Amino acid sequence: MASDVENAAAMPARRAGADPADRLDWSVVIPVKLLARAKSRLTGLAGEYRSALVLAMAADTVAAAVRADGVGAVLVVTDDPAVGAVAASLGALVLPDEPAAGLNGAVSHGALHAGDMWPERGRAALAADLPAVRPEELTAALTAAARFSTAFLPDADGTGTVLYAAAPGSEFRPRFGPGSRDRHLASGAAELGPDALELTGLRTDVDTIEDLRRAVALGVGPRTRALLSARELADLIRSPQHAQRRDGSGS
């Protein structure tokens, strides 16, 4: 399956001694902000709904990662007690965000911990806002990433990053944030084929209500789906005009 998702345009470094027949297990790090500060671009949602949605999406992302073949451990880096409790209940190892140095600092902290505990595994950082991701998509992307020293998967817009991976012994230097796709390419990381249809859920991160509508159309996980059954949120997803009226941007 790796040949379906690989894009060699960036001319990345191949992992030394990599054999397609060899299985590489992974430690996956998922950073989650304090719920009260998360997803300010989800306009039209009252604060309590926004926090609940962020928690549900993170839980569905963690659950998919825990169930993915080839993932030996999922580490959630967060200072939010509600996130930590849910992540632990799903089988994740929860770490405090001790660096408090933003997204890249959080995932690097988790990756360092994973490398100390399981040096034989690859380390990967996964966005927490992927409610439509399926375990087999993550397995496919990590299988492809195992052929390279470092690799990444761009988001659906083609400008950001949803997954960054580094093989054992390779330097872990993520460059998440606006425009991260270009920064990861410039670093020499391999871009995993962004046009692979089987990775649509993995590439659909949710920053806006329109992103959420796209994820719902693909099929979201059980926690996000249950939350969206609430009438207020269901109306918001169905009606762009409703969202505009709630945030004051409409006529």
Describe the structure.
- With 251 residues, the protein is an alpha/beta fold.
- The chain has a single domain, classed as Alpha-Beta Complex (Spore Coat Polysaccharide Biosynthesis Protein SpsA, Chain A).
- The chain has eleven helices and eight strands.
- The chain has an eight-stranded mixed β-sheet with strand order 1-8-6-7-5-2-3-4, sandwiched between helices.
- Helix 2 links the parallel strand 2 (26-31) and strand 3 (71-77).
- Helix 2 packs parallel to helix 3 (81-89).
- It is globular.
- It starts with a helix and ends with a helix.
- 49% of the residues are buried.
- Residues 1-10 and 241-251 have low confidence and may be disordered.
What descriptive keywords fit this protein?
eight-stranded mixed sheet; 251 residues; disordered C terminus; alpha/beta; Spore Coat Polysaccharide Biosynthesis Protein SpsA, Chain A
* Amount of beta strand: 5-15%
Q: Whole-number average pLDDT?
A: 86
- Please give the CATH class: Alpha Beta
Counting helices, strands and paired strands, the structural category is alpha/beta
Number of domains: 1
Q: Can you tell me the CATH superfamily? A: Spore Coat Polysaccharide Biosynthesis Protein SpsA, Chain A
Please tally the helical runs, counting DSSP H or I stretches of 4 or more residues.
11
Q: How far is the first residue's CA from the last residue's CA?
A: 49 Å
CATH topology: Spore Coat Polysaccharide Biosynthesis Protein SpsA, Chain A
Q: Please estimate the helix content.
A: 40-55%
Give the CA-based shape.
globular
Give the low-pLDDT segments: 1-10, 241-251
**Can you count the beta strands?**
8
Question: Biggest sheet: strands, sense, closure?
Answer: 8 strands, mixed
Radius of gyration, Cα only, in angstroms?
Answer: 18 Å
Strand order of the largest sheet: 1-8-6-7-5-2-3-4
**CATH-scheme architecture:** Alpha-Beta Complex
The SSE string, one letter per element, is HEEHEHEHEHEEHEHHHHH
